[in-house]
Amino acid sequence: MDVAEILKSLTDAFPEAISEATAESEIRAGSYVDKDKVKKVCQYLKDSLQFDHLCSVCGVDYIKRNELEVVYHIASYNHPVVLTLKARLPRENPEIESIVSVYWNANWYERETYELFGILFKNHPNLKSLVLPEDMLGEWPLRKDYEGFPNKTARNLV
Amino acid sequence: MGEVKEKKASKPDETSEEGIPGVITTTTSAISDLLKKTKVQDLINWGRKNSLWFMTQPMGCCGVEMIAMGCAHYDTDRFGIIPRNSPRQADVMLISGYVTKKYLPALKRLWEQMPSPKWVMCIGDCSISGGPFYESYSTVQNIDEIFPIDVFVPGCPPRPEAMLQGFVELQEKIKAKKDLGSEY
Lengths: 158, 184
Description:
Chain B: Belongs to the complex I 20 kDa subunit family. The complex is a heterodimer. Chain A has helices spanning 3-13, 38-48, 106-117; strands at residues 18-23, 28-33, 53-62, 67-75, 82-90, 95-97, 120-122. Chain A is of the alpha/beta class. Chain A has a single domain, classed as 2-Layer Sandwich (Beta Polymerase, domain 2). In chain A, strands 1-2-5-4-3 form a 5-stranded mixed beta sheet, covered by helices on one side. Chain A is elongated, with a radius of gyration of 18 Å. Chain B folds into 2 domains: 4-37, no CATH class; 47-175, Rossmann fold (3-Layer(aba) Sandwich). Chain B is built from 6 helices and 7 strands. In chain B, helix 3 (61-70) links the parallel strand 3 and strand 4. Chain B is elongated, with a radius of gyration of 22 Å. The A-B interface holds A 131-133, 136, 139, 141, 146, 148-150, 152-157 and B 101-102, 128-130, 134-139, 141-142, 144, 152.
């Protein structure tokens, strides 16, 4: 199964949800996905296209476009193609369907993306902060307009 | 100091108290003189500075150096400095890494669990100022406003010899104390 075949199968299955599907090389493919269909697309990738390994879930803040993006890297144990799925979200109320029911290891990835970017994953089984303390929830420190960096210099060094 | 004699248990003409096997008596009065001629404050300070037990609470890569310092090669036991696993048994807390906002309550709790008199040392640039993480959203800066730091040991990480030097400086500090340790 090569990269062109995978992208063709994906685009034919979801003609309205998949956009900008490109093959960057023999082993890398990228595409944008509609934020409402991400769970169905992942289910299809896992069941029909042998994408059975979720490498990572992360977020990107595009503040000039007023958008947040969720990036999924999905790979396979049977073929060498790594698919980069991206979903665009509005910056005001970012909500996306959780894919924990498809890939179980998305649980902690989505919790970390939630605490750092404030992206709400709907139907997540346990959506709370992973690493940060509870009282930092709501500050979303990896967003570009985050203001809470410490501004005191270390007095004992100066 | 003085000569130490071991009594032979085989001598039949000694008194019965000295015939106990393994009992060593000394003929010198050095310990008695020390107790008579030294001030109580100095004696307390002498005891405290020579039994600085530190808590093995490594928080970063400086913690590895801290463990290396406590092991056989650098042998801090010759100064009476030995690692302890419980804060209840420790005299010195080493802050040996960056303090995150999440870890600060646990560190405060460890500090409160240690019995007085107690001391705290800052090991490494991270604990002193935040180090390379000084601008991070989760790093606590100016740790000296939170804990009464006695000795700062800079370095990234400091070598075990540097930490040992810090302990020696702390011993000098304890030696000069003029109180009984109730307000530590």
